[in-house]
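### Sample
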Amino acid sequence: MQTWQDMKHLQPLAAQMLVNSFKKGRISHAYLFQGDRGTGKKEMSLLFAKSIFCKNKDGAEPCQNCRDCHRIDSGNHPDLHWIEPDGQSIKKDQILHLQKEFTYTGLESNRKVYIIVDAEKMTVNAANRLLKFLEEPSRQTTAMLLTENGATILDTIRSRCQLLAFQPLQAHIMEKKLIEEGVSNSNARLLAALTNNITEALEMNEDEWFANARKLVIQLIEVLQNKPNEGLLFINHQWMPHFKERTQLQRGLDVLILWFQDMIHQLLDREDSIVFISEKEKLNQSVMRWSRQSAARGLSSILEAKRKINQNVHPNLVMEQLTLQLQR
């Protein structure tokens, strides 16, 4: 259950703009929520709908307990309409059905709200039909278009919407939200360092492949520390079979980067910046193996390896070369 105070922590600018629209009585007929997946667009659209329909709200803050709020939570409010892609796209017939619904009087109030999820997936015909709908706005109608890529929305549609840009989540906010979702402290710290997308982070937390990838990174470090002559053997027999795709290999290198960054943080006594908080003993062993300068060189080598992967250099050759560089 989200409140406007929660949303101000998550997306301060967008939340404040919507709250101000309530205070001034200037709710727009159409909004475009633009931002990456997992940045809170859906949550804010639901909260905004509650603020519109709730009869017991305090300013912009809905009561969260009335019939309207509960029906929005359950997806059963008759005057709130959701449109999501039917397969790979949002089709013209979906917009036509929406328009037909809006010719009827509101069942619970005089207001009607519609939310279009993944608005960038509208077909050309659907977008043109929506444009005609937006060109004749009703004062009692509010639209929210949610998109990850606002640049693909027709300019004529964009010009009729109030644009709200959703910023990537900051690491400490991500970490806190993940912990609230039941993710362990150590995993939350790691995931928040890898992505600012809450949805992606939760999926990674449940992904057995990612859990094994994390283990392999630490095992690689241990091999380089204790049995450097077996480094290439480890890469070819354990590392590469797991990181089969280039995107997977990039993710593994991202985790490896965090380990080398942690070594530098440890050497500089920046405890609060350490990501692998559950691996302190192993991290202490690493800083005995790599100096600050060699850790920095290692970071550069990993970044160069990522660049080569993007340039389609053969992954095995990239990892073998990286391993030799990290052994020095």
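The two ends are 52 Å apart (CA to CA). This sample (DNA polymerase III subunit delta) is used throughout the tutorial notebook.
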